[in-house]
């Protein structure tokens, strides 16, 4: 028993806390099954590695500021036939992140843009990537405050550092000149350096009005769309699908068409 406690203490001192915690159960299993020494060590270290992966994932999930945890398995693709499920599943491989490409989800409120964005973010976290989620209004409030207080250089790091930045709900309020320029700087700072997922209820043709500056909107879209996958969702509100199935149509007419204005998925 003295030797067992000494081994447990050494494992703890080496930072292998999970291995130290489960040592007894692994020894018991080894005695019952007569596995080899190598198999015993492999099982013990695999247990430690799995624990660390889960702890790392939980930490990255917490730091991501995702409002909730959703997956593509929870999404009802049959309710939104305008969505190409194969395209979304391909995006879930996260190859676009490794190529520093963007994903832009367009559509009226409630069609599942945020659900898909969060699902892709969750998958990125599972695959060991760093993620940060923020809605547009909070992002701009943060940047404007930091700019006013002379802390903008430090705040940029929050949005430049993650492997995947998710900006949700673009288009619900018009941007002033300062906000538009800050958004432009952010897009420029991540251009061909880090991937973004953006959701918007505004078609690209409306971004000039949204930003109050057509040349600025053009410059932003030029960078966002250079390496981008555009998903244009046309359909009824996902949140209201029970009412829709009962025969209620709640989508305004101007949301029924293509919001990309001729932009083709890359």
Could you give a quick summary of the protein structure above?
By secondary structure, the protein is α/β, with parallel strands linked by helices. It is built from 12 helices and 5 strands.
CATH topology of the largest domain: Rossmann fold
* Spatial strand sequence of the major β-sheet: 2-3-4-1-5
Number of strands: 5
Global morphology: elongated
- Unreliably modeled segments: 250-256
Rounded mean pLDDT is 90
How many independent structural domains?
2
Number of helical segments with 4 or more residues: 12
* Structural class by helix and strand composition: alpha/beta
CATH class of the largest domain: Alpha Beta
- Report the order of strands and helices: HHHHHEHEHHEHEHHEH
CATH architecture label of the largest domain: 3-Layer(aba) Sandwich
For the biggest sheet, the summary is: 5 strands, parallel
Helical percentage: 40-55%
